[in-house]
Amino acid sequence: MNQAQNSEKLKSGKVAWKSPSNIALVKYWGKHGNQLPRNPSLSITLREAVTHTEFEYHVKPTGEGLTVDFFFEKKPATAFRDRILGFLEKRMPAFPFLNNVHLTINSNNTFPHSSGIASSASAFSSIALCISSIQQTLSGNQKKGNDFYRQASGLARLGSGSAGRSVYGGYVVWGALDGFNEYSDDYAVPILTDVHPVFKDIQDAILIVSDQKKKVGSTAGHALMEGHPFAGARYDQAIKNMNSLHHILKTSDLDGFVEIVENEALSLHALMMASNPGYLLMEYNTIQIIEKIRAFRIKKNIPVCFTLDAGPNVHLLYPNEYKAEVVEWIDEDLSEFCSGGKWIDDGIGQGPEQI
Ligand code: PMV
């Protein structure tokens, strides 16, 4: 291939990533500046709830600008296209190719369309990985090392804070924390300390209490932390829980894990209730399920616990060794509290993959 052909090839191409959602164990709630977190957070990346995104790019002559076509599940999605376009326009200084390019973006989720699962983390992480890959290809580099993932994480974080954590598998931290030099507010990093085997195969049964759009979105929720009477105490609590959870993850302390994870979930929702205006995202069935999880834990002496996203659905976390028993119990006793009996058999995953 001669140089002209090679540079022509570099100007058009396709790149695709599949990237998962994640569920925070220590929650990010409250932000400042350019999508920077008020406190560090820690999540597990999921295995099944994944977004596939493909970017087809054609670099255009200088001055022709950025144009985007966006298809979700093969259909044009104008509202999301406009959001992406706004997002990409702001990224032009860091990703100069965006100044003159046409992008055709095709995206779809593996999880049910209206499942109430937060798709922004998987969507923005897959988009960020595609943009970072294109930038790399255009600069003649293919190496997917730490720098690549940090850049993609920082970019994803600007689209949706929690998306920054989805560019890695396993346990992931976003946000500076004293004593951990590698942690940053600008991007997420995978947990580098040893995680005890008991936590390596945590399962997450996502119990779909409601598949409706949330009453109050997370952007509004984060904003309500400004001037919140409990804000200072919350940020201190998150730091304390981060430190405890780091210690717990190195040991086999499942009781400690359960305590922190449920404390974080209920604290998040308590903050919403105590906001001004206050609001409730838990529903009647959310509370029914929480009570059942706590009763099952005591009765069976099995370390099941719950966490909640900013919505009514319950993430039931448990070690894989109890899977058969837990699945039977969900089908018998919990699925009646789920919308249409729906739940997703998910768990900790390996992170995104280029496809
Ligand atoms: O990433 P956002 O802006 O949608 O906020 C996510 C907030 C929580 O999901 C409630 C917590 C978290 O850390 O993921």
How does the SSE layout of this entry go?
Elements: H1 3-10, E1 12-26, E2 31-32, E3 36-37, E4 41-59, E5 66-72, E6 75-76, H2 78-90, E7 101-109, H3 120-138, H4 146-159, E8 171-174, E9 188-190, H5 197-200, E10 202-207, H6 218-223, H7 231-250, H8 254-273, H9 284-300, E11 305-308, E12 314-319, H10 323-334, E13 343-347, E14 353-354
Parallel strand pairs: 5-7
Antiparallel strand pairs: 1-4, 1-14, 2-3, 4-7, 4-8, 5-6, 8-9, 10-12, 10-13, 11-12
Bound molecules: (3R)-3-hydroxy-3-methyl-5-(phosphonooxy)pentanoic acid (PMV).
The site of (3R)-3-hydroxy-3-methyl-5-(phosphonooxy)pentanoic acid has 13 residues, from loops.
3D architecture notes:
The chain has 355 residues and is of the alpha+beta class. It has two domains: 3-191, 2-Layer Sandwich (Ribosomal Protein S5, domain 2), CATH 3.30.230; 197-353, 2-Layer Sandwich (Alpha-Beta Plaits). It contains ten helices and 14 strands. It has helices at residues 3-10, 78-90, 120-138, 146-159, 197-200, 218-223, 231-250, 254-273, 284-300, 323-334; strands at 12-26, 31-32, 36-37, 41-59, 66-72, 75-76, 101-109, 171-174, 188-190, 202-207, 305-308, 314-319, 343-347, 353-354. Strands 1, 4, 5, 6, 7, 8, 9 and 14 form an eight-stranded mixed beta sheet that branches. A four-stranded antiparallel beta sheet has the order 11-12-10-13. Strand 11 and strand 12 form a beta hairpin. Helix 7 (231-250) packs antiparallel against helix 8. The chain is globular and about 65 Å long. The two termini are 25 Å apart. 43% of the residues are buried. The protein binds (3R)-3-hydroxy-3-methyl-5-(phosphonooxy)pentanoic acid (PMV). Residues 24, 27-29, 41, 120, 160-162, 218, 268, 309-310 line the site of (3R)-3-hydroxy-3-methyl-5-(phosphonooxy)pentanoic acid. (3R)-3-hydroxy-3-methyl-5-(phosphonooxy)pentanoic acid (PMV) binds at residues 24, 27-29, 41, 120, 160-162, 218, 268, 309-310.
